Amino acid sequence: xxxxxxxxxxxxxxxxxxxxxxxxxxxxxxxxxxxxxxxxxxxxxxxxxxxxxxxxxxxxxxxxxxxxxxxxxxxxxxxxxxxxxxxxxxxxxxxxxxxxxxxxxxx
Length: 107
What we know:
Layout: H1 2-9, H2 20-33, H3 37-44, H4 48-61, H5 70-105
Helix pairs in contact: 2-4, 3-4
């Protein structure tokens, strides 16, 4: 019962946003200090998994690791958004043509 009340009273976590400068400095601290990601994350007040993601992405951007660079990720995001917009436009045109054909064929 108490566990159920705790679950119900918990508010969903709000997603924190960090500046590019903060991320860059945090990654640099990990790279230059030689300390574990978990320790640096604790000191900075971020989750170690979050800092680990930043360090991994930095290694990719530097060419030290395989994966999509930040620029490639941004370009992919833009292309996916454009693709979704074009699909919606195509569907709208198909419906418009179908409506136009049905209107002209009933006259």
